[in-house]
Amino acid sequence: MFIGKDLEISRRAFIRRSSQLAAMGAASSYALGLAGIGEAAAFSTGGDYKALVCVFLYGGNDHGNTLIPFDATNYARYSAIRGGNGEAGGGIALPRASLANTVLQAPQGQTLTDDMTLALAPTMPRLKSLYDQGAMAPVLNVGPLLAPLTRAQYDNGSVPRPAKLFSHNDQQSTWQSSQPEGSPSGWGGRMGDLALSSNTNSMFTAINASGNAVFLSGETAVPYQVSPNGATLFRPLRRNRLYGSSEAASALDTILRSGSGNVFAADHATTNARSIEYGTFVNNALENANLGTTFPEGNGLAAQLQAVARLISARQSLGVTRQVFLVATGGFDNHDGLIGTHEALLGGVDAALDAFYRATVEMGIADKVTTFTASDFGRTLASNGDGSDHGWGSYHFVMGGDVAGGRFYGRAPHVSVDTADQVGRGRLLPDISVDEYSATLARWFGVSNSELPTIAPNIGRFATSDLGFMNPI
């Protein structure tokens, strides 16, 4: 049942794309760049601009110290499980008093599990402010699932679970693509496939500011990689000098762009030519992309998000109406030294996200840009002595002017290591699937209901494709 449906989705996609390529009688990069046009007919832009920005926290973010129980009863449970000494904290529990300024008040009518009140880590006051403004929403207990799964089904193996749980590489890939390591495409790239024909310059549909990752790879969309300073140009061509000679640089340029009768060589040359030409084009566009918003210095994530903000400000020059971006930061694999290290990491995320949101406000498009977090997995609520270990479900944040913020989405898990919403040592059994999370974002982006299975292949097994954290379209 499970395998058959996935194969059927892949079969339909293969037939659709193959027929498009056959009609063109070519297999070049140009043909591949056009292969998504047929399916893109189901993609709606309405003529306006929208961008999705994925912020990936590599290493597996410790959700237990990201959103922390603040009410006395649940805080006491949290502190005990994490090795603390009551409200003073200790072990890997933060002191209760340190959370007073980042408490997130649930709106009237929303009651969390066990009458819980949650606070952000004390180093995240800016996200607390965005929550209060209604521009940020926490999404509780999200993780990869193939189908809805109970603890009893997990224990008896009656419902398949994602492969290679608790493995960094595999779960990074599963979060980004719905498959373990080795997947050829990610759900950001698959959205890019649908959006290609909406952009005059389709090369700038999917932009990676963080390094290699499957998230932005599509079946037709290819991620365009940038650095915090813009497009990276090949040094000899950038300076128009090779070994001190402009003639040598010109010869190298010709070689890089030259193909042959071999289709692979021709395709490689076309890719090189695009890289050379588009790099200069991007940097020229960015020269006029001036933003007044100040981004924190010495913050790698902020530098990436500043580059994204500048690219968005140059959207008209770049000829785009739909874009998907990836930025990332690491260091979250805190098996030891959690206290101190983790708060500092979250403080960097808090400052970077706040600056980026302010930049979108400056540009007047805060409601056109939605930023969301992802990570390998959550971690154990139970302490290993000085840190936490690999988990499954986790808490995430969605931010933007079109986010229905100021409230929580999903069911808050019990503060426990032995209830049915976890699978041992406080590893959360996800209540919300990545498919539901991605489908909600995809719908806002313009993906039609009929195309949602190409983005989120398991979505048909879940009750909803809209978790409600985006304002109605």
Topology (elements, then pairings):
Elements: H1 2-24, H2 29-34, H3 37-40, E1 50-57, E2 67-69, H4 72-81, E3 103-104, E4 118-120, H5 125-133, E5 136-143, H6 151-156, H7 168-177, H8 187-195, E6 206-208, E7 224-225, H9 235-239, H10 246-257, H11 263-287, H12 300-313, H13 315-318, E8 322-329, H14 338-362, E9 369-375, E10 394-399, E11 432-433, H15 434-445, H16 452-455
Parallel strand pairs: 1-8, 1-9, 5-11, 6-7, 6-8
Antiparallel strand pairs: 2-4, 3-4, 5-10, 9-10
Helix pairs in contact: 5-14, 12-14
Gross morphology is: globular
Distance between the termini: 33 Å
**Structural class determined from secondary elements:** alpha/beta
Radius of gyration (Å) = 23 Å
Low-confidence stretches: 1-41
For the residues shown, what is the average pLDDT? 87
Order of helices and strands: HHHEEHEEHEHHHEEHHHHHEHEEEHH
Helical content class: 25-40%
Count of extended strands: 11
CATH architecture: 3-Layer(aba) Sandwich
What summary fits the major beta sheet?
A: 8 strands, mixed
Q: What fold name goes in the CATH topology slot?
A: Alkaline Phosphatase, subunit A
Query: How many individual helices?
Result: 16
Beta content comes to: 5-15%
The total number of structural domains is 1
Strand order of the largest sheet: 7-6-8-1-9-10-5-11
